[in-house]
Amino acid sequence: EVQLVESGGGLVQTGGSLRLSCAISGASVDDFHISWFRRAPGKERDQISCVSANDGSTFYADSVKGRFTISSDNAKNTVYLQMSSLEPEDTAVYYCAADRQFFYCSGYESYNHWGQGTQVTVSS
Asked: Which residues of 70-83 are buried (b: 16+ CB within 10 A; e: fewer)?
């Protein structure tokens, strides 16, 4: 039984920062790939960042590279997404997901376990 709960979303001004949290229960963050996805209004769901369980390597989508940072706290069994220089285009529902079907965490969206999502709104 793997469960994920996102938190930390809210309303932030353009250029501001926000940190999202993904609390995992029923499994260790070391045993699963953990990925952040987002779905903006009227758009498809996109993978924006992930960390691979096998070697800790990370992936960032071009749209967030240099602005977002993924990290893990093993003691708290929690994965974070630190977001900076936020833009209105970052407005979306952000989801945390876990999987270990493939060797690396990026390049696919068929993750087996998903959180409920947390809303991030960036005002212009």
From this structure: bebeeeebbbbbeb
Q: Please check whether residue 97 is in contact with residue 4, taking contact to mean a CB–CB distance below 8 angstroms.
A: yes
61-81 residue pLDDT tens:
999 999 999 999 999 999 999
pLDDT tens readout for residues 25-69: 999 888 999 999 999 999 999 999 999 999 999 999 999 999 999
Q: How far apart are CA 39 and CA 53, in angstroms?
A: 24
The two counts, helices (H) then strands (E), for the chain are: 0, 11
- Is 15 exposed, middle or buried (CB count within 10 Å of its CB: 0-12, 13-18, 19+)? exposed
SS3 59: strand
